[in-house]
Amino acid sequence: MFEKENLEEEVRKFWDKNKTEKKALALNEKAEPYYFLDGPPYATGHIHMGTAWNKILKDFYLRYHRMTGKNVWARPGYDCHGLPTELKIEKKLGIKDKKEIESRIGIARFNEECYKFSTEFIGTMNQEFANLGVWMDWDNTYRTLDKDYIEAGWFTFKTAYDKGLVYKDKYTVHVCSSCETVVSNNEVEYQKVTDESVYVKLKVKGAENEYLIIWTTTPWTLPSNTGVIAHPDFEYVKIELKKGEKWILAKELVDSLMEKIEVSYKTLDKFKGRKLKDLEYETPFHDLPLQKEVKAKIVLNEEYVNLEQGTGLVHCAPGHGTEDFLVGRENNLPALCPLTMTGEYTEEAGKYAGKYVKDADSELVEELREKGLLVTTEKIKHDYPMCWRCKTPLLFMAMPQWFIKVSSIRKKIISDNKKNVKWAYGWAGKRFEDWLQNMGDWPISRQRYWGIPVPIWECQKEDCDEIKVIGSVKELGKDTENLHRQFVDPIEFKCKCGDKMKRIEDILDVWFDSGIAPWASVGYPQKEKPFKSLWPVDFILEGSDQTRGWFNSLAVCGMLTFDRIPYVNVVQHALVLAEGGLKMSKSLGNIVSPDEVIEKYGRDHMRHYLLYYDPAEDFVFSWEKMKDVNRFFNTWKNTVKFQELYGSREKLPSKLELADRWILSMLNSLIQKVQESNEKYYGFKSVQAMQEFIVNDLSRWYIKLVRERLWPTYTGSGKKAAQATLYHILDTLNTMMAPVLVHMSEAAYQDIFRGEGDEESVHFRNFPKENKKHIDKKLEGAMGETRLVVEAVAVARQESGIKLRWPVKKVTISTKNEVLKKEFKEILISVLNAKNVEFADSAKDTVKIDHAKGVIFLDKTVDTELEREWMIKELGRHVQGQRKKAGLKIEDKINLTVDSPMNTQFENADNLISEKIGLDSYSVGKLKGKNKSEFEFRGKKVSVAF
């Protein structure tokens, strides 16, 4: 498998034939459970690079924990309810608005279509995730649309209700006029928009020609005005304009307004805002039906008035804003809300009835102008709430809704988050805490169709307030096959008063669906196993947008039901972006699909690339970086092949050479670092550390140090130690890399490392544990300094025109490292390619070289003998290259002849190069042999034949 071009396909055939994935999922069944909860994506189509990254990150940690002996619960899930699905079906059925769903299609058919769509792609997405090398229990996915899951939702809702944490109230909520439903605070996205703001005059009652001046960015809310808010301690003024009008506004903001309208004025009076309390005025649209009974007045508030912009007098429409609503409630101001769910004015708005509010802005402004109430307008860029699904501007509307009383449990959630939740990134935990600090009550009801029905039945008698909350199918009294609206809406109960009780038509916010996943996904409360053994969730991993999404709904639902946040370890990742840091989009033509990467490079290449970088930062995909990944793969594959040629399964001998002791120390230090990183959910650090070890410590350094000892013709001491060490290192590394390179590691294991009696798959092996006896930090430090010395000398050689393969007479090293002085002389002579190495603080007739740990003195003197060695080194290198061109194998012997103006210096050179170039005979003079070539040494031509 390892040598084949279609390595991954061969490995997958092996897995299928041996049912390897199923066996892996069943490993460690009696061991400590490790409960992973998959954040359910919407099952609305094919996977993309973002969802691929998400699942690969999860798979990495699940494989690691499985290899550490834990009984890993890895069940994938899908979010099946909600507006994304409804909108797809509306488009499919040609539905123009929500009314058509009931009048033309019917709830039953609509929900059946939603069901088909929601389940259609689950199998496809499972296959696409599995194709990435992700191992989860694909045959047992949890789905939020299943009957048991919905029943678990009812159980949670009733638990909250029984605790007094569910209530109904008229309150201002965000409404999407396109989706025709309420939008939770955690679903709101703010965008910079440009709107026309207006300065408006409000006529003071009982005073001639006197006006309050207000400012608003939402003219469409002015028909609902019932109050003006002033700050009790700010200084206000009454000014008089030339035309005789008297205006009241904050002193600090007078000049800025007057400059805009270019009008002069004089100040008549100054006073604190508290003097304005209860001053009555005439609302700007007092002639509309909804304003008939309104007695508008000034109220005081310190929190919601500032002097940064506007006039210091704040327009208050309690039916269209949270702050307005709260102030209105405190001061008995009516909360007018003359809007439908489609954002159109109702009959109460008189001539504006049927008009979409944002479209009516210009007409409202024009009417203000006609009435002489418009001071001025100006364009303003400000943050405005948008629907996260369809990007429609949201409307604030006061309407009856059911709420979860999050304000009563907020402090407990914050405390539990601090004490018991481990955020891989501390700043992410702090961001979550900041979100919790400002979290209001949760409007849980939605006026839609495809979701978990709110399990509340209300008495239909007008003067009866009796309600019934259902927490299970048993309490429902009818074992219906399905718990969606078309099945439960017809079910009625008899009220205590004798009248009938009907279910309210709302469904639950879709975030409630995923919030109950820790218990609903494992069948609780219908059955206690496996919930009791798994609880709480050990690990969740999702995108940074879930701070106020899934992480939030999980925390709230967990506290409602079990008085604790249901998870322990949290990892959040950023976004996948296209090259240049742009968002991937069809319009820009920069989408890169997982399949595209797999086709060009392979699954393991993509896995390694996605796992290598810190997931807390946006992942900017780059084809150039994929080339870097490919270079690493070539290094790793060549290193494994090298081991296959020269390594040995023999047990590590008790006596090891210095280089062997060093690489074993580095390996065991690596194991420590990788385990520590993985346990802290910094997997990217372990992937980076393993690549660094493979490329720089193993391939470029250790193999360089031991290559001579591994050569087939080498007969000196330490050969078996090098062979056994090389095998041990590669076998261990292959196991460590298995959670990353899932296919390549399996192929190498089956073809090279698996012995008789070994585990059936590399993925069944235990993750390596460090052997502390092998760790020698002083040795690692000395080798580290050695490498610095080599780098510094290499630079000096390059500057002096001395090639690395040419020996130098002497290198003197000034160092305080005693291990280096005591044990490293032989290695230094070898790696520096020096005739001698000495340790001293100075040396005569040398070139001084500084490096990070000390000073080096390089002797560049070249005598006749040294020059001869250089010539012979060049000869050996040239012949090796010619052998390769001729296609000779290592064991093939050659008869070599050399001819040059320096023949006397080539005499007896065979003693120095025989082993490396496989000589059978050697002579100097007349050339003999079919393979003829030549090279230059310091301006002189050398001819060669064999």
UniProtKB/TrEMBL annotation:
CDD domains: Anticodon_Ia_Ile_ABEc (cd07961), IleRS_core (cd00818)
E.C. no: 6.1.1.5
Pfam families hit by this protein: Anticodon_1, DUF5915, tRNA-synt_1
Any one GO MF annotation of this record: tRNA binding
Listed GO biological process terms: isoleucyl-tRNA aminoacylation
Keyword field: Aminoacyl-tRNA synthetase, ATP-binding, Ligase, Nucleotide-binding, Protein biosynthesis
InterPro entries xref list: aa-tRNA-synth_I_CS (IPR001412), aa-tRNA-synth_Ia (IPR002300), Anticodon_Ile_ABEc (IPR033709), Ile-tRNA-ligase (IPR002301), Ile-tRNA-ligase_type2 (IPR023586), M/V/L/I-tRNA-synth_anticd-bd (IPR013155), Rossmann-like_a/b/a_fold (IPR014729), tRNAsynth_Ia_anticodon-bd (IPR009080)
Highest taxon, organism lineage: Archaea
Catalytic reaction equation(s): tRNA(Ile) + L-isoleucine + ATP = L-isoleucyl-tRNA(Ile) + AMP + diphosphate
Ranges for domain Aminoacyl-tRNA synthetase class Ia: 12-619
Ranges for domain Methionyl/Valyl/Leucyl/Isoleucyl-tRNA synthetase anticodon-binding: 660-810
GO cellular component labels: cytoplasm
Residues forming coiled coils: none
Family statement drawn from the similarity comment of this UniProt entry: Belongs to the class-I aminoacyl-tRNA synthetase family.
UniProt name for this protein: Isoleucine--tRNA ligase
Organism per entry: Candidatus Undinarchaeum marinum
